[in-house]
Amino acid sequence: MAQFCKQCGTAHTPDARFCDECGKAVNVASSPTPAPASAAVPVRAGMQRRHLILAGGVLAVVIVAGGALAWLLAPEAASASSFSRAINAHLAADEAARDKLLCLTNLPYQKEEIRVASYDSSTRQWLDILVRSGLYTAPVEQSSGGWLAQPQFVYALAAPGKAALRGNKLCVAKGVNVAKVSGYEQVREMGGQQVAMATAKLALTDEAAWLSASPDRALILQHLPNGDLEMQLPLALVDKQWQVTDRAQLQQATMAMAGAMRQASGAQGAGMLDKLKGLFSFGGHPLQGKWKAPMGGVLEFTRDSVIENDKVSKGTFATEGNVVTFAPEGAGGMAMQISLSNSNNTATLSIGGMPVAVLQRLRD
User: Fold this and answer.
1) pLDDT tens digit string along 93-129?
2) In what order do the strands lie in the sheet with 169-171?
3) Could you tell me the pTM of the whole model?
4) Rounded alpha-carbon distances, angstroms, from residue 224 to 137, 172, 341
């Protein structure tokens, strides 16, 4: 198909490059029209917005990550939840501590039969409660024989009773959880460590079926070592987490604090020590006598000393109300406060304001 020169109108072949008549170049592809400069602006603006959004997102991630890291590195706050978690973890890991709360040890429960003399009414009443709970069969009366024959009552352990045994202990549940806790609002610093004495009200978990169905459930729970399912435990902030500690560790922290107090008082001169000594006076006090400590030891208070395992610590006593304060002689001792109950038969021993033991008065 013929084509025509746009200059002179002469026809030329489709593959011709120049017009034969006027020499004008033909069949030349037209150059693309350049886009206006303003068309590139939205592209660059879009790229800038994307860069800003990306940078903002990275910054937000850094801020969130930094906050999370700071939260992870911060010490655990003293709260009901942190104390409950620490106590629950302690009881879950320490079977002996758990058994002290959940198991009865007032009789040799591991025996197949328990024989009770007819005159021992209190033991019989207790075993009758366990009979009603299905742990023992009804008692069988027998004679002890001999010249002074005495009737006895024989209680045989039933299958539910055997299932409830752990060693020689009769247990009412498999575990406990903290139902309510206090003490987190009274945190103290002792020897550079945060410590507190927590009081936990406990609730049974996985309670034994026989206990749940027993008509004497409340009476049985009262016979547990902690019949009210309440206990006191010392806690310390260790590795930024609250943990149940033992009283020995608490005492070490107390000793460190006492040492710091002695150094501080020494730095202020002998006048402060004289004032502290002036708060105490020799004389009688209501603690005099022997007291039983929680682990079976005996603590004896005399007019001017404290005796523990034949170790005598001389010092002075001061009484204010129901609180007796003992200030030991020398630089190595620790002051202690002993709060007497209304009956004067029990006392709470505190060091540095922190309760560390409950004492029971021994009568001669």
Assistant:
1) 999 889 989 999 889 999 999 999 888 888 999 999 9
2) 103-104, 169-171, 165-166
3) 0.53
4) 22, 9, 23
